[in-house]
Write a structure and sequence with these properties.
CATH topology of the largest domain: Tetracycline Repressor, domain 2
Number of strands: 0
Strand content: under 5%
Structural class: mainly alpha
Number of domains: 2
Radius of gyration: 20 Å
Shape: elongated
CATH architecture of the largest domain: Orthogonal Bundle
Largest sheet: none
Order of helices and strands: HHHHHHHHHH
Distance between the termini: 67 Å
Number of helices: 10
């Protein structure tokens, strides 16, 4: 059977996907600062021009990957805000895995996110782009929290946006401390704090 010929758009999307997969490998191996566009192109089997025809810069390439990572992390945090019947379920979106387990599984990209965060603080364009992504994440999380509280009979006695800020900061802060001191993070700490947040008094 003759293979269907890809349209220009399909071919472009396929090339972009291969570049993102290659970039994930290179960034994971080299870190954001030391990775280069040339290495990404070589890993993907393309020329450097192919990278720049899809992404304006190394920063834009990294942000495309970071968008995927943040979307996945937001889903995990959103899963945590749903009241669970058991402590095991409250530990993570996947039954039987603690928050500490999930941090370790995502160690590479969490560390890369921290590295890029520091880079962004020194580069205004990167800072603006990263700040916008976190604004969107906080808004989406706020919306989910609002829906959850309203389904349970009312909002807490403080702005729901504060809780979105706190939950995202909690996850990031615990990641830093757990990587600094492996094995020290109490397995039920995250679930316990989230439950306290969600049990905040209602008017």
């Amino acid at each position: 059977m003759e293979r269907k010929r890809l349209s220009r758009q399909e071919s472009r999307l396929q090339t972009r996907e291969r570049l993102l997969e290659a970039a994930a490998e290179v960034f994971s191996r080299r870190g954001f600062h030391d990775a280069s566009v040339e290495e990404v192109a070589e890993e993907a089997g393309f020329s450097k021009g192919a990278v720049y025809s899809n992404f304006a810069s190394k920063e834009e390439l990294f942000l495309a990957l970071l968008d995927r990572h943040l979307a996945a992390e937001l889903q995990k945090v959103a899963a945590q805000v749903t009241p669970k019947e058991s402590q095991e379920e409250a530990e993570g979106a996947i039954p039987g895995r603690s928050f500490a387990n999930l941090l370790e599984e995502n160690r590479t990209w969490n560390v890369l996110s921290i590295e890029y965060f520091l880079y962004a603080l020194r580069h205004p364009w990167a800072q603006e782009q990263l700040a916008e992504r976190y604004r969107v994440a906080r808004q989406e999380l706020s919306d989910r929290l609002r829906e959850k509280y309203q389904s349970q009979g009312g909002l807490p006695d403080f702005p729901i946006e504060y809780l979105a800020w706190a939950l995202l900061a909690l996850g990031g802060g615990l990641a830093l401390q757990s990587y600094l001191e492996p094995g020290a993070l109490p397995s039920d700490l995250y679930a316990t704090i989230v439950k306290r947040f969600l049990d905040a008094p209602r008017p």
